[in-house]
């Protein structure tokens, strides 16, 4: 006996390949008129393979005896190294089965063998290795095992038919390249390697033990399928892998049904796993081939369904960590941050584990760019803004809310108290959710109503600012779709992403979304009601913070009122409030005296939004005319605001023949919509 092959993946596949070459040359010696010598004359490259065979095969061994000798050499390698990848594949149970696969894979090793195959087949249009060639080279008289083997390998997608060539076969894409040498195999092993117990080390004992029991049942063969539902950003793949005593090989649906993923998983002694993303109302089939009865992990979101239930299937949910778990995770990710900073981070970023890891990584980079070794809380906030923009930017718009406080919101003491209570409800929502028997206990849903310009949107911005959360306004154009059911799917994904990113979501002009249901007289009414019903159900379980504003509360379906945790009614500001709003919006260094500000606030009954617009217009007048911003500029701005609102000037006040009195909302005739009667607002004396 000559050379012994190393007991490695590369040594095993090399022995298989040379055994397949030996079988082909034995077939050539048996069937071609001039045998191997004539083949070498026509295909000179064969000489190098024949020389390699001679280097390993004992002297004097005939071509007929070579095939059996190579089978023994392959078996010797497999004995020295049990658990080689191809020996674990159920469809390749014998040495000869693996030699058959290697023969089909010869064209992947060296496409010049195609010319040899064509000579053996007696045709010029073959693009793969015909079944007949493999059968003739390996099958013993009176058997049909090799033909049945190739049928099974084709059914299990280890080999594939070559289109338009009848019985020709080629090895499945990625299969031979993954097992042919140690480097490729190490790369696949690394891909399937678990992340280690640190992925769930911060979990509570009860939570980790619950998931571990399910994973153990799967790997022990007592379950066929484990469906893991995760919230966005939960990093369920890492959690499953960390609790499994076998690696998970992640594959696509196509790789499971039409590729060699199951064979590669068997070679790794791994559990095949797949990610599915069914939309709300969709049912995704479990990608399990009919012939496969091994374990399978399905990782999916919280929406939609996954296949039909069966007795050997279990479902688990992987949600976001609680406050104590987040505290431990932040301590692990930022060990130098200190207890106080970790406490702040755990309370300020109520996001799933995967997002926590990403925020810590990105914030570390931000800190290093600025020359700091340990990230500050503001670095994490900057990383959070980038993450939110990346996930939400196609469906919502971020609204700047930095440096706002409740002092910027001028409103009545009652509304101010309600807003501050809403702030504390948001801060304590996780604590309030403990023991809550309802659904969506960790969420906060607030409805702000009142006339246009009275500060509802500003209050939403300020709420997000004092909570130090990102604020996103839903983009109507990106959400609503003309096709039935698509709007609900987009909204569901938006709400799911926003609640897991812990962003404050703003539904401005909320009556657009939450309109009252109507009697069904047409298909349009039915589908409009479906959208309302969907939002009723989804807001019930919403675990984030959502603020809805409207100046038409009577158009909102009454069923939404019960689902609101807070309903705050804004009113038009009174004179004292208007005085404060004017003071807030006029720039520093203006020439409007305190008495004139009092007169402005008392005389012009504008909303906060109108005062802001008037202040901006006054600044424009002052800048254009290159003069200080004085009371005349403000009165001109108020007049412009009234014109914009559809009012016209009343008569001049008596006693002022030379100069008109400043326009007052109390001395104007309001213009209603086209065709509507005019209404006179009579002012006070």
Automatic annotation (TrEMBL):
Coiled coil: none
SMART domains: AAA (SM00382)
Region annotated Disordered, chain positions: 645-685
Domain named AAA+ ATPase: residues: 442-574
Matches recorded under InterPro entries: AAA+_ATPase, ATPase_AAA_core, P-loop_NTPase
A Pfam entry, by short name: AAA
Top-level taxon: Bacteria
PANTHER family linked: AAA+ ATPASE DOMAIN-CONTAINING PROTEIN, FAMILY ATPASE, PUTATIVE-RELATED
Protein name: AAA+ ATPase domain-containing protein
